[in-house]
Each structure stands twice: as structure tokens, then as C-alpha cells.
Amino acid sequence: MAAGKTPTELENLLADKFENQLVSNEVMVVVLESYFTYYLEGEVRSPGIIRSFRQLSVLEAIIAAGGINKVTGKMKSVVVIRRKGDKYQHFELDLAAIIDGKKDGAFVLDSHDIVSVPQRVW
Prior knowledge:
Blueprint: H1 7-17, E1 36-42, E2 48-52, H2 58-64, E3 78-84, E4 87-93, H3 95-99, E5 114-117
Parallel strand pairs: 1-5
Antiparallel strand pairs: 1-2, 3-4, 3-5
């Protein structure tokens, strides 16, 4: 019910839902903790879920997952999968070029993005 909604949207939703049960039609929502969730899989040292209190770039998220396995990870085609409604967007990033300063490394992840580091093909 609360996921993806602002505190104001939740206040309005709750006030409408419980209007017959409330003495006053005032509802206040206070966010005690909020974080971004990212999923990292593939050739990172610690695949799994990363949580952060701020948005992370792809490079920061990969570092938080222990970095790319330099032997088996393919740095030139890291994929970010992002859900928008009922569709998925795919972004392919050349992490090697970002690290070398040849490309902008400021690709910022949205909460619930999936970062996939493919295996290098020999």
C-alpha cells in the first residue's frame, strides 16, 4: 500500500479510506526510514541485495557488492534492467571505459534496478 507513494499521497489515501472511522479527517505520515534497494547478479564478488540510504551509481553499487570478478567478469557490457510500469528497459554500460575516464560514470540507479555483470566468454 505504501510502496512508491509520497507521505502526502499516503495521508490522503488513509484519510479517504478511514474517513468514517476517524474523529478528525487529519492523517499524518512520518517516514522513519527510507532506503533504495538494488539487485546485483552475475560476476560480482557478493551478488545479492544492496540497500542504501541514497541513490547509487552503477559503479558504486558494484563496489558495494565487492567489485567485479576481474577474471570472469565482462566489464565492457554491464547491463542495468529497470522496470517502468509493465515494461523493462535495458541499458548496457562499458564499465571499463567509465573506470578509464573515457565515458561518464554518473549512470544513477533507481530503486529496484537490477545490475547484471555477464561472464566473460573465452
